Amino acid sequence: MVTEDVEWFAGIDWASQTHQVCLVDAGGKIVGEHGFAHGGAGLAELCSWLLTMTRAAPTAIAVAIEVPHGPIVEVLLERGFQVYAINPKQLDRFRDRFTVAGAKDDRRDAHVLGDSLRTDRHCFRRLSAENANVIELREWSRMSEDLQQERNRLANRVREQLWRYYPQALAISDDLAADWFLQLWAAAPTPATARRLRESTVGGILKRHRIRRITAAEVLASLRQKPLTVAPGTAEAASAHIRTVAQRLTLVNRQIKQAHHRLDALSDRITENEGDSDAMGQKSEQRDVTILRSLPGVGRIVLATLLAEASEPLRRRDYRTLRTLSGVAPVTRRSGKYCIVVRRQACHMRLRSAVYHWARVATQHD
Fold it and tell me: Quick one: pLDDT band at residue 286, thresholds 50, 70, 90?
């Protein structure tokens, strides 16, 4: 699409209920301002209003917005508008060109967005419709991360309660949220029950979960160490607490496995789509999934994060943008003889974490 033929510029200050829109022409004159309710009818009215006010094709209208995603962006892209996104910090600097008093409201921000797009379009990022598989992969990747954080929180609660009355169980495993450890605890929830636990029962639990780093005899030796002397009712109260947490952990473990299977399936589907592009004559010299999977340090989680959060830079082979988004590119501050290079703080946090773990594992195994 030719971006030089844009004749109209609109700024949208999005909100949870009402989106404020300002439309300016190529000369910077405000043509119209309007607020639209969030919803299917409101966003459809927004698109119709832009077309009615300009009497132009959607490709001749450029729209500026702060967020690079969401229902507003998707509706505008589907209708054929040119959509550009900008960082809120950049918008704050552009606002200073219109007022130095620090005034701020929705109408002013919409005007700043539209007029800044007219004069400084190179500062904005052009958006495009994303692949359905990438959108789904991004959601599953974020759900997987949320589930893992929930698992860590619940495991810390189990550790706290065990330390309270059953510290010898902590020596068995570092992963207190593992299914096999939860089953082992259920078989011997207190030091008193551990003394009656049979070695064959422990061996069966270890065998079912394919745990070979510790034997049943070693488990019983740890559990049957001299217990703590606690107040009456402490062991029962802590056991009840762990029992409720263990039920949630079992569910979270199952959901994490489902999320991982879905991540693998979606990554494979993206690989198949790249192969379909080759078959249609659009030969791809490099395939993202194949290359990333071959690199040391890139596993399921890192691969899904890179494909989901940086699909556009990867597709364009824009490595400068990829380094900036992931926080790898440093920031240089130079003035006269003064020069300092600092870590980039303005970046995509999920990408930063993924690239960090990628490098950490690669240095260990490559």
Answer: low
